[in-house]
Amino acid sequence: MSSQPVLEVRGLDKSFGPVQVLHDVAFSAHAGEVTALVGDNGAGKSTLVKCLGGIYSIDGGEYLFDGKPVTVNSPREAATLGIEIVYQDLALADNLDIVQNMFLGRERRSGLVLDEATMEEMAAKTLDSLSVRTVKSIRQLVSSLSGGQRQTVAIAKAVLWNSKVVILDEPTAALGVAQTAQVLELVRRLADNGLAVVLISHNMNDVFAVSDRVAALFLGRMAAQVRTADVTHSQIVELITSGRSGELGLQNVNGVTA
Prior knowledge:
There is one protein chain. The chain is an alpha/beta fold. It has a domain at 7-90 and 163-257: P-loop containing nucleotide triphosphate hydrolases (Rossmann fold, 3-Layer(aba) Sandwich). Helix content is 31%, strand content 29%. The strands form five sheets. Strands 6-9-10-3-11-12 form a six-stranded mixed sheet, with helices on both faces. Helix 5 (147-159) runs parallel beside helix 6. The chain is globular, with a radius of gyration of 19 Å. It starts with 6 loop residues before the first strand and ends with a strand.
């Protein structure tokens, strides 16, 4: 694993009018690792992800990709760098099949017609590289898929485009036990294939099952980003709920030194 992060922000600030949502946030994601981004509702997770994905512009701070300063002003610019985000709603079209969904808006053409053979081959190769065995046919309509299979297709769609960073927003939130296990295996496989994976989750069992690092946000500030092996379940919960756990975390919370 490289010691240099693929993606890194330093001193990131973001405000909406008079309300500052992110304060001096530092965050990084490394190739070959799963970094869990955790925090209570309103902690700033979604805002941070939208800043990373170019949906929101940042007000201050540095944004580095592969160690070089970059400016990301749109999702297209983020995708060009190699950053793909799988949101909770998955953005899949039920009336289209798996191949059509994976290439939606990025269809391959041969002259004036769609190059169906190439798209089928690329879709099948991507699913195979992720060791996906639960999909019977790449021409199945998405409406016929289970929740876990839909999540798999959405993730495969994200990695189809030579992405370097994949950000997953609560990928197991609506899944049962068996489907959750399948998706977590896939998340781990993405990192094992060399990608930097950011996993947003409220489920501490999921976080400790697959993550290499945990980044905990508290009221728009990064309380800590630590190796998962170096902290306990209860320490992460304390970081999420109070911004501190013993000597770990913010030294100053809400203007009061702990």
